[in-house]
Design goal:
With 97 residues, the protein is mainly β. The chain is 13% helix and 41% strand. The strands form three sheets. A four-stranded antiparallel beta sheet has the order 1-2-4-5, with helices on one face. Strands 3-6 form a two-stranded antiparallel sheet. The longest helix is centred in the first third of the chain and has 13 residues, at 8-20. The radius of gyration is 14 Å and the shape is globular. The two termini are 27 Å apart.
Amino acid sequence: MSLGTSTPEIACAIEELEEAFPGRIVLRQHDASGAVISIQDVPLSVRWTPTTGELWFAVPFHYPDSPIYPYYVCEATPTGGYVPALQAVVWRDRQVT
């Protein structure tokens, strides 16, 4: 996986994610603006359908001075409907929560 042109802190975060989730990390974007990463087959609670999904998030260029945000779950929806903190949106041309 190419480490692109971002900071050493972002490169370290990507390496730590690859160690924690071997074979499940997909680097969607990695450049001077930061990184967009997804983790495949993330276990979700029984309150989601299906109970596994894909988690996407952005690591900003000024990480760790700015938090990793936003987080999106793809290919899964809450079974009891959306509570105020959750909403269905389109992010990077995908339907996500």
